[in-house]
Q: What sequence folds into this?
């Protein structure tokens, strides 16, 4: 154990939820500190409960620890009580496994899942006694990298991250750790390492790119200033999920976390092409794990963790090509252990009835459906490709199969939305309630619960709506009040919605440029952190931070971008062609639906990549 262990133990007696910091969980990797050549600190920029629910962390944790000369240890953002005590008692941010300080590691990796965690990154670096700005780091300080969906617009964090890993982490992480390991003993300057990293496909080193701006504040150009840096950084893609690494054991927390179950990733990517959905664009093409691989993984994970629930994880689990067969096989395999199977992220037009009937044999979990919009016109605008009849059929099947709890996800503030679309949300909720009462009493479960959640639309990079401005806070608040009043009259319905101010800031950083680094520093200085937790979020401090930086948040959140404008993230190659996204934007204005990719290639751009996209291999260009 590290030099700080005694002081850490003393702090644990003075904080809430001490298991957030104790470590020692089952299936953790503990290696002798001096037996390895590369020490990697995996940092999740949120609390333990959130981070331990993240599948990507579990994959990369196991991947690095599988290497005999490398070790990966976990760091999480401490809660406010622990952070204050650590600062008072001079205890740096420490790892869960060995309690070594963050500055003791050769390499630090942050996962970027949510824009409003960015100030947590700055706070963790500072608490770990690592220089916050990349340009200030000396040769003996850790190399700071980052990856995840938000890395497809890395610019707001460009001043703080040495290198971004773009795309599937299984494909690039070990190349980066090997480069750092081999550089350490050479004595070569830090720049030499960064040049090596920049030559690895899928790695973006922001210091090697110059950004110029037009007089109106828009980006004029992003150009490499180093021979090692490519003009565009192409994302990494795992082409075969069956051969890709997936953990057969992972750390099991001592305390309750957000998603406390086995996460079994059955497929990656989505063919549907919803125009608001960043993940559906970034994780193309679709790749599935085989039935045999999934059964083997499920059995090993159940034995290693003892969990009583397996969640079939993907962007749209109902689209897995062998879903009924998979569920039947897993139910048979897990029957003796009484392990339940849950189906999150269900599309309401998937073939579900047989699967639902199988999953409810052990225990019933809540079902979640995502109509996204209240009217067919708006569902066509966003290319959702489902109908009201689909929803009614599927929830009726669910109620007939013994479910009584259903969650319905919608978005408000979508492009072209009107009050008629909001009326449609209330109308759909009412019809779902009627579906429940249409099922004979002897066939339906007691205790109807219908939850309607309405998030605020946030324009995201690499989507057809990346050019759209966000709806104003005033408009979103009015729509929330309007919908709340409408749903109040619907018996059995609970209404949840998000804070518009938080979504506003998310929009700023989602579409932001490199200048927003100044805002992040100012916000961190004002104490902004853990903003995903409503009781800690201070909108006033964020507005003051924008003022400190001399930037207008309305310009970032509300502005409609020009058709030919250079967007801050366009030097990152996601594989999705700008012309395709613009065609989809134009089709949205006309409420025209684009077919599912499985029905024929729509020319998104990935067809250029041989060996990655099936369309390329089939000759569809």
A:
């Amino acid at each position: 154990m590290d030099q700080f262990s005694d002081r850490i133990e003393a702090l644990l007696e003075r904080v809430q939820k001490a298991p957030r910091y104790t470590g020692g969980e089952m299936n953790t990797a503990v290696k002798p500190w001096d037996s390895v050549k590369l020490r990697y600190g995996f940092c999740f920029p949120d609390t333990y409960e959130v981070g331990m629910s993240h599948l990507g962390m579990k994959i990369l944790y196991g991947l690095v620890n599988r290497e005999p000369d490398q070790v990966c240890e976990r760091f999480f953002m401490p809660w406010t009580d622990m952070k204050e005590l650590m600062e008072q008692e001079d205890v740096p941010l420490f790892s869960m496994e060995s309690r070594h300080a963050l500055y003791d590691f050769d390499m630090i990796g942050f996962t970027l899942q949510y824009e409003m965690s960015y100030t947590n990154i700055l706070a963790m670096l500072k608490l770990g006694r690592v220089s916050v700005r990349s340009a200030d780091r000396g040769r003996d300080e850790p190399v700071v990298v980052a990856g995840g969906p938000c890395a497809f617009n890395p610019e707001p964090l460009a001043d703080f991250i040495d290198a971004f890993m773009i795309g599937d982490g299984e494909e690039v992480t070990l190349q980066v750790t090997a480069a750092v390991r081999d550089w350490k003993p050479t004595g070569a300057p830090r720049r030499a390492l960064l040049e090596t990293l920049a030559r690895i496909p899928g790695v973006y080193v922001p210091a090697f790119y110059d950004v110029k701006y037009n007089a109106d504040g828009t980006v004029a150009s992003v150009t490499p200033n180093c021979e090692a840096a490519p003009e565009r950084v192409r994302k990494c893609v795992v082409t075969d999920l069956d051969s890709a690494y997936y953990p057969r054991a992972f750390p099991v927390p001592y305390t309750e976390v957000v998603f406390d179950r086995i996460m079994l990733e059955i497929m990656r990517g989505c063919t549907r092409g919803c125009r608001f959905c960043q993940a559906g664009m970034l994780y193309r093409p679709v790749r599935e794990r085989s039935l045999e691989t999934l059964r083997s993984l499920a059995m090993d994970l159940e034995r290693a963790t003892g969990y009583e629930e397996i969640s079939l994880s993907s962007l749209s689990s109902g689209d897995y090509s062998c879903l009924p067969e998979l569920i039947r096989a897993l139910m048979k395999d897990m029957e003796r252990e009484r392990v339940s199977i849950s189906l999150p992220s269900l599309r309401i037009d998937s073939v579900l009835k047989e699967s639902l009937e199988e999953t409810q044999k052990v225990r019933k979990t809540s079902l979640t459906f995502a109509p996204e919009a209240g009217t067919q016109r708006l569902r066509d605008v966003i290319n959702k490709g489902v109908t009201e009849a689909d929803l009614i059929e599927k929830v009726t099947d669910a109620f007939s199969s013994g479910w009584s709890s259903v969650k319905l996800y919608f978005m408000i503030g979508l492009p072209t939305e009107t009050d008629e679309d909001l009326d449609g949300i209330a109308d759909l909720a009412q019809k779902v309630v009627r579906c429940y009462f249409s099922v004979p009493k002897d066939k339906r479960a007691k205790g109807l619960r219908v939850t309607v959640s309405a998030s605020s639309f946030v324009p995201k990079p690499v989507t057809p709506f990346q050019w759209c401005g966000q709806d104003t806070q005033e408009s979103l608040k009015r729509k929330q009040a309007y919908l709340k009043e409408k749903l109040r009259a619907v018996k059995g319905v609970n209404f949840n919605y998000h804070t518009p101010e938080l979504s506003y800031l998310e929009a700023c950083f989602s579409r932001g440029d490199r200048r927003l680094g100044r805002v992040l520093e100012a916000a961190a200085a004002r104490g902004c952190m853990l903003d995903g937790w409503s009781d800690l979020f201070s909108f006033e401090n964020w507005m003051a931070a924008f003022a400190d930086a001399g930037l207008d948040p309305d310009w970032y959140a509300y502005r409609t971008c020009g058709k030919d404008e250079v967007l801050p993230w366009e030097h990152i190659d996601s594989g999705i062609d700008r012309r395709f996204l613009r065609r989809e934007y134009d089709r949205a204005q006309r409420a025209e639906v684009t077919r599912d990719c499985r029905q024929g290639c729509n020319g998104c751009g990935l067809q250029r990549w041989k060996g990655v996209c099936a369309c390329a291999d089939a000759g569809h260009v």
Notes: The mean pLDDT is 92.
